[in-house]
Amino acid sequence: MNKITIMIDGCQVETLENTTILEAARKAGIKIPTLCYHPDQSIKANCRICVVEVEGMRLLQAACSTPVAEGMVIKTNTRLVREARRTILELILAHHPQDCLQCIRNQNCELQTLAQRYNIRDNHFENIVEKKPLDLTSPGVHRDPNKCIRCGRCIEVCDQVQTVSVYAKEKRGFEVGVSPVFGLGLGEVVCINCGQCILACPVGAIYENDQHNEVWEAINSDKHVVCQIAPAIRVSLAEEFGLESGELEMGKIVAALRQIGFDKVMHTNFTADLTIMEEGHELLDRIKNGGKLPLITSCSPGWIKFCEHFYPDFLENLSTCKSPQQMFGALAKTYYAEKAGIDPAKIYSVSFMPCTAKKYECERPEMKSSGYKDVDVVLTTRELARMITEAGIDILHIAPEKFDPPMGLYTGAAVIFGATGGVMEAALRTVYEVVTGETLKNIEFVGVRGMDGIKEATVDLAGTEVKVAVVHTTGNARKLLDAIRSGEKFYHFVEVMACPGGCIGGGGQPIGTTNARRAKRLKALYHEDQEMPLRKSHENPAIVQIYNEFLHQPLSHKAHELLHTHYIKRSIYPLEGEKHPI
Ligand code: SF4
Ligand code: SF4
Ligand code: SF4
Ligand code: FES
User: Fold this and answer.
1) Cα(97) to centroid(ligand 4), Å
2) Could you tell me if the CB of 158 is within 6 A of ligand 2?
3) Backbone phi, psi, residue 6, to 5°
């Protein structure tokens, strides 16, 4: 691409052809406000907040959609521009509830930030806010339609990235709004609870089902409250406290959880290692005994729901392994309860996840194999940050502490579960050594790493060529499954993660999660794996111990009872009297 020269606010700026005014200005350090623009999405140009003056053009131009041209003279800070932006903000705010103090996005809202930047202290327009009811129908994702500024970012991520297409524009003109199809609630449509629309939304119109107060209640009761924390949280929680991804030591998070009041702090990584033992043996069993192939991973509950709705012909391909979260829940109220001598009825099990779909998963009726609800409540990274802040804990300066046994030990293989390709790589590390009886010379399967949407590799397992594929986002899963279904592709083992980048990009992660941020988190996870003394799941001594003491062997009867599950065909539209509702 050729370089061209333009002038922005009197400064000469060198930029590339085919960039927009917004991109050129940002590179030059000039801040043009945006609302409908999102760095990972197509240009919508519907909010007009980014308008600028361009010499020779009669009307103000939207910087996000106007391409630069040689010699262009742009002014971003004239009286006309400032007044236009203020008018646009006042118009939006005239139809907005403005209850910032009670809003979940207070101090983390793109609209609020702009209102502050442009010193909006009064409004020339009358405040008319239609009071539509909140949508609380989904266990994972809630909506306040009154706060929607109609930017369209949720529509694009759900439609283009996830290909679930839950949202549609409703009505026209001033009445235009965005809602799930047919005006239904998110819990009444095919929403997979991935929460990607929460991350895309610039304001507080879509948010997680915030349950952190339920956990405070449990801590203040006579329950024995145990928690697990997922690997992707360590790298992202840092961002909630002003650090770079991965800069917060795990031990400090453990110490903070103890200060909050948890009786035991353990790690989902332990059951990630256990998943590898179970899933790895399931793969070997299917290859050896002619079982259904490809085996497809099952630890992402958004992906599972997507498969149940859109690809029920692949349900038999899914690994029967529960997700690590649910394995932990089942063991917390059996194995841990037995070892600690605690009545499982007294145990309250909390999990901290980067994921809103896990809130849905723990409510699935089959997730009660301990005889109780296996996981009582799931909180996201954002809710964990809220609890730490509310408790007044200075997490940056707290002394690090260790996880509690017996489910606190883990390997590097479990750490990378949070990344797209991580489950595949962890499984290959174990399966290779189990099959060949040899020690892997290079344990890093770099072919399945990175942010490419679909990755493929072939691995030689003692003379058998095993074909594997890794996808992230349900949009990419759709492409891969279509290719498998048509016979164009064949694999033995497929990893699917519903969210872009895997769990590090989950819908429960900090607001401001973009693809650039996801790439940083991936790097931090692989760095942590490299630092671990043990990097293969079968080498985890706590895993060896649980098989010796409790589960006996992978795929045993007891393992099946507690660690495996089944799936349900679901329809795309709610049907009256349907056995398995949405
Ligand atoms: S969405 Fe933003 S501007 Fe609206 S009430 Fe919430 S914090 Fe305030
Ligand atoms: S949670 Fe996911 S599937 Fe549901 S509406 Fe949002 S983006 Fe679509
Ligand atoms: S719900 Fe949020 S992302 Fe969707 S259109 Fe409204 S403001 Fe934009
Ligand atoms: S950010 Fe440019 S029109 Fe919305």
Assistant:
1) 22
2) yes
3) -130, 170
Specify the DSSP element, H or E, that contains 88: helix 79-94
State whether CATH 3.40.640.10 applies to domain 225-563.
no
CA distance 151 to 154: 8
The pLDDT tens digits for 288-297 are: 999 999 999 9
151 CA to centre of ligand 2 in angstroms: 16
Q: Atom 4 (ligand 2): residue with closest C-alpha?
A: 191
d(CA 482, CA 569) in angstroms, rounded, equals 18
Regarding the beta carbon of 200 and ligand 3, being less than 6 Å apart is answered: yes
C-beta 45 within 6 A of ligand 4:
yes
Q: How far apart are CA 327 and CA 272, in angstroms?
A: 9
pLDDT tens string 253-291: 999 999 999 999 999 999 999 999 999 999 999 999 999
Identify the residue whose tokens are 């997700």.
323
Q: What are phi and psi of 445, to 5 degrees?
A: -90, 80
Contact present, 433 and 442 (Cβ < 8 Å): no
Torsion region of 135: left, alpha or beta (phi above 0 gives left; psi -120 to 50 gives alpha): beta
Maximum Cα–Cα distance across the chain: 80
Between the CA of 82 and the centroid of ligand 4 the distance, in Å, is 15
Q: Taking the domain 3-92, which CATH number applies?
A: 3.10.20.740
Instruction: Please state, in angstroms and rounded to a whole number, the distance separating the CA atoms of residues 526 and 391.
Output: 31
* Long-range CB contacts (within 8 A, 24+) of 108-117: 108/511, 108/512, 109/202, 109/203, 109/204, 110/34, 110/35, 110/202, 110/203, 111/35, 111/149, 111/202, 111/203, 112/203, 114/33, 114/35, 114/49, 114/85, 114/89, 115/89, 117/33
Q: Which whole number is the average pLDDT over 107-124?
A: 95
Nearest to 511 by CA among 39, 31, 148, 110: 110
The domain made up of 130-209 has a fold known as Alpha-Beta Plaits (3.30.70)
pLDDT higher than threshold 80 for residue 405: yes
Q: Show me where the domains of the chain are located.
A: 3-92, 130-209, 225-563
Ligand 1 centroid, distance to 398 Cα (angstroms):
32
- Active-site residue set: 279, 282, 299, 319, 358, 361, 366, 503
Cβ 198 under 6 angstroms from ligand 3: no
Q: Is ligand 4 within 6 A of the CB of residue 228?
A: no
| List of residues 6+ apart from 435 with CB closer than 8 A | 284, 461, 462, 464
Q: Is the pLDDT of residue 170 over 80?
A: no
Average pLDDT for residues 29-40, to the nearest whole number? 97
The model carries a pTM of 0.96
| Ligand 2 atom 8 nearest Cα | 158
